[in-house]
Amino acid sequence: MKALNIFYNKWMVLIFHFAAAYLITIATASAGSLVQFINILFYLSSFYLMVGLMMWVIKGGFFDAVTKSFRKTGSIFSKNQDYLLELEDKALPSDRISVSTVNFFLFQGILLLSGMGLLLIAYYS
Questions:
Q1: Where are its TM segments located (predicted)?
Q2: Which pLDDT tens digit goes with each residue over 78-113?
């Protein structure tokens, strides 16, 4: 667990993303263009923001009622007689996602997007 502590530090992961995006830019672009670097940052930030926002919606409990209904309907149609007891034991989607994970993805996405925005301002200036 100690070896993975570097991945729990959100600033180290952010620096790693910028360094990885820069290395990919150097490897793929012949002159290491700024546009390629901005594009890679856009792809990274889009991924983190989409995953973070989806986790935020799930954590908010949007899918809990639908999940309960599907579980109840599935257990009624199955041969299981004590379906109400099983429904209490299963975790809901909002219980499976921690707030720190949601915050991590949103933090990474917002800061990568901000870095991309600053580079766009520098590029068009």
A1: 41-62, 104-124
A2: 766 665 556 667 788 888 888 888 888 999 999 999
Per the CB < 8 A criterion, the answer to whether 87 and 72 are in contact is yes
Token pair of 56 as six digits: 């935020």
- Residue 45 makes CB contacts below 8 A (sequence gap 6+) with 108, 109, 110, 112, 113, 116
Residue 111 φ then ψ, to 5°: -75, -35
Let me know how long the chain is: 125
d(CA 58, CA 11): 25
pTM: 0.78
Q: What separation in angstroms does the CA of 111 have from each of 14, 62, 88, 114?
A: 8, 26, 40, 5
Compute CA distances 64 → 4, 52, 82, 92, 106, whole Å: 32, 18, 21, 6, 22
With beta carbons less than 8 A apart as the criterion, state whether 25 and 38 touch: no
Q: What is the DSSP code (8-state) at residue 4?
A: G
